[in-house]
Amino acid sequence: MMNPNYNTTVTLYNCLRAADNPDKKDAWYKTTLTECFYKNVIGRVDDGKTSRMANAYTVRIPESNRYLPYAEWVKLTEEERQAFFTLHLDDIVIKGACSDNVTGTSPYTAAELLRRHKPDSFVVTVIADNTRCKYARHYRIGG
C-alpha cells in the first residue's frame, strides 16, 4: 500500500555539468515524478551574525528503476539519459508538473525558472539514498 503522504507530483531538473559534457556547457534534463512526499517549512536561519526566515524543503521520491547515480547517468548517451533521472547537488525541484525547459538562454535559465516558481522551487543541497531500508525505500532530497 502506498503511503498516503506520498501524494505530490514534482518536476526534477537534472543538470549535466559542463565538465561532464562533451559540449562543455550545462545541459538540463527534466523528469516529472509522481507519488512523492513534499514538505516546505519556514524556519529561522541563524548564521551567527544575522537571523532571518527561510524555507526548508524536503522531498522523498519512492525507489525507482529509472534512478541512476550521477556517475552512471553521465555515461549514458543523450537519448538514453532521457529515460532516467539522477540526484545531484544543484539540481532543481519544482512542486507540481512543470512544462518549462531550461535552455540556458533568457527567459529559460535555471535562475529564472527558480524565480518564476518560488516558493514552490528549490536547489538541491542535500541528498540521501534510503533504498537500503527494509520499508518505505526512497531517495530524500532537500534544499
Structure write-up:
The chain is mainly β. It has one domain. The protein contains three helices and seven strands. Strands 5-4-1-2-3-7-6 form a seven-stranded antiparallel β-sheet, covered by helices on one side. The longest helix is centred in the C-terminal third of the chain and has 8 residues. The chain is globular and about 45 Å long. The chain starts with 7 loop residues before the first strand and ends with a strand. The model has no long low-confidence stretch (mean pLDDT 94).
Query: Main β-sheet: number of strands, strand sense, barrel status?
Result: 7 strands, antiparallel
Distance between the termini: 28 Å
Give a count of the beta strands, DSSP E runs of length 2 or more.
7
- Unreliable stretches (pLDDT < 50, length at least 5) are none
Please tell me the total number of domains: 1
What is the typical, i.e. mean, pLDDT? 94
Instruction: Write down the secondary-structure element order.
Output: EEEHHEHEEE
Q: Any idea what the radius of gyration is?
A: 16 Å
Strand content: 35-45%
Number of helices: 3
What is the global morphology?
A: globular
- In the sheet with the most strands, the strands line up as 5-4-1-2-3-7-6
Multimeric state of these chains?
single chain
Structural class: mainly beta
Approximate helicity band: 10-25%
